Amino acid sequence: MNVLSTVAAIFVLLLVGYAARKFNVLKGSDTLVVNSVVVNITGPAFAFMAIYGKPLTTEMIRPPIVLCITSLIVLTLAYILAKALRFDRRTTGGVMLAAAFGNTGFLGYPVTIAAFPGQGEALSTAVITDQFGMALPLYSVGVAVAATFASTKINNWQVLEFLKAPLFIATVLAILLRSVAIPAVLVTSLELLAAATVPLAMISIGLSISGSSLKMARVPFMVAAILKMVVLPVLAYVGLILVGTQGVVRDVGVIEAAMPSAIMTSVIASRYGANGAFVSGATFLMTLGSILTISAILSILG
């Protein structure tokens, strides 16, 4: 099976989740349970095993730094375009969130596995890029943006919530313990948990999308989609080339940058009032569209 076929197979799992909701096999509310399992149990195991025992290079630090910088550039471009097109304040915040922060975890991990099977360097880069290049700015800058454009006051400590997230903690522990021997039975248990992450994550995405999400403004969506799925990966590619990143690490950085809007952007937008309905719809449509855009990027990267 070639890479594109494998990527297509991953998206079939998304359709399984969508069909399960459509035919009442599972309910939309079950998304919370599946997400909790992935975020708090299987995901941390996945992140830990992706890094533990694998060699880490200084080159792997570059993709998350480049992604942070390019995301801030796109965040600024989204604000400028939203002001020029006279979007309302809440929609402006929603467009900024949808354009700048991608699904580098739930979707980025399985796509990386499909594109670089058996290459530990690729998966380690994806995890580090996800946690330090996307999660960190999303839960800090992203929360601040959502609250600012919804005129909502936030506790200063809320922007540091990602520090106690199991995924983040597991990533840090894996880096610290990567050369330390741990019991074989624990390693096996973590591997079994990690294996459940990809199918559960994709089914979760399928459960979270619905036709009602389509009721949104077309122009704001086009702005967010072009910035997120075209401009951001191009900027990331140029940035990684400029800092001398090559090969698998560069390609993983570009692929992660090309991911559609993160599910958590709609959660944060809804929580703080930055037009959560729009962000949810944008996430849904971009996720479906990413079947084509990700395939195109994989083909271009070769």
List the uncertain runs. Answer: none
Give the helix proportion (percent range). over 70%
Give the helix/strand class: mainly alpha
- 3D shape: globular
Q: Which H/E pattern describes the elements?
A: HHHHHHHHHHHHH
Largest sheet: none
3D structure, described in words:
With 302 residues, this protein is an all-alpha fold. It is 74% helix and 0% strand. The protein has 13 helices and no strands. It has helices at 3-22, 30-51, 62-84, 89-100, 108-115, 120-149, 166-177, 184-195, 197-208, 218-242, 247-257, 263-272, 276-301. Helix 2 packs across helix 8 (184-195). The radius of gyration is 18 Å and the shape is globular. The two termini are 16 Å apart. The mean pLDDT is 85.
List the helices and strands and how they pair.
Layout: H1 3-22, H2 30-51, H3 62-84, H4 89-100, H5 108-115, H6 120-149, H7 166-177, H8 184-195, H9 197-208, H10 218-242, H11 247-257, H12 263-272, H13 276-301
Helix pairs in contact: 1-5, 1-9, 1-13, 2-7, 2-8, 2-9, 3-4, 3-6, 3-10, 3-11, 4-6, 4-10, 4-13, 5-6, 6-11, 6-12, 10-11, 10-13, 12-13
Condensed summary:
With 302 residues, the protein is mostly helical. The chain is 74% helix and 0% strand. The chain has helices at 3-22, 30-51, 62-84, 89-100, 108-115, 120-149, 166-177, 184-195, 197-208, 218-242, 247-257, 263-272, 276-301.
Essential attributes:
302 residues; mainly alpha; 13 helices; 74% helix
